[in-house]
Hints:
Shape: globular
Strand order of the largest sheet: 2-1-3-4
Amino acid sequence: xxxxxxxxxxxxxxxxxxxxxxxxxxxxxxxxxxxxxxxxxxxxxxxxxxxxxxxxxxxxxxxxxxxxxxxxxxxxxxxxxxxxxxxxxxxxxxxxxxxxxxxxxxxxxxxxxxxxxxxxxxxxxxxxxxxxxxxxxxxxxxxxxxxxxxxxxxxxxxxxxxxxxxxxxxxxxxxxxxxxxxxxxxxxxxxxxxxxxxxxxxxxxxxxxxxxxxxxxxxxxxxxxxxxxxxxxxxxxxxxxxxxxxxxxxxxxxxxxxxxxxxxxxxxxxxxxxxxxxxxxxxxxxxxxxxxxxxxxxxxxxxxxxxxxxxxxxxxxxxxxxxxxxxxxxx
Length: 331
């Protein structure tokens, strides 16, 4: 049976609180366990389940990594609809208007992601976020922090995977210091920077977020000159973490979140490659068009529907923008 308590302060994004200066501060994730051989959650095929939204950039990180590592048969996935309403993220049985979504196969009576949180902790007081990595054996949440889940996927199942998939390493030892450094400022000013811009409730809070966002995009443009990847000559988690924001930038963040100093397709040739600048590598579009882990994890209809429909403090009319056309340009 799903919870009947009033949890709207935890689930209803229209009740999102900002700081006294109008700025948005993201709360930290609550479940921070790891899958490891000698721990409470050992690596086992079929034991774990991943809950995601295709519209959510944090959840998309985990979808990409799951695909890259060949974990589809090890960790099944269920996706919610993009209509995050008063009760938070709904499964299909709570929102049958959206066809491309799932019910919870582990708990058929559950209607929202929040039901998982209350099963794991009846006194849970945080927000009901995705992704959720679930342990079917213990019926609890292992982890709901995307940056940690992708590292779990990167190594925890290697001894059970074919050699080619086990060899894929998105957090290689030789580049960890540089990856960590890039992740730190990209998270603050870009991944979370778009939200700080979009959810700002004062002009100063907005400008204090949007200008550092574009300063960081300019910095990334320089880093990507003549390069396929952010760090070294290999795909790393730094690329995954940046991609999920930049792929949403033109379709959503430029208009919906007022991140409109420049768009990606015209303002950042190294990130997106303008057709007349072929000397530069097309970082974002190459990842999308040449690597199915990125393309198959990106669903623009989910993305646009969620932001424009769910975030009524930003878009009270729920009118969904039709552009840009196309969502992403061809190579």
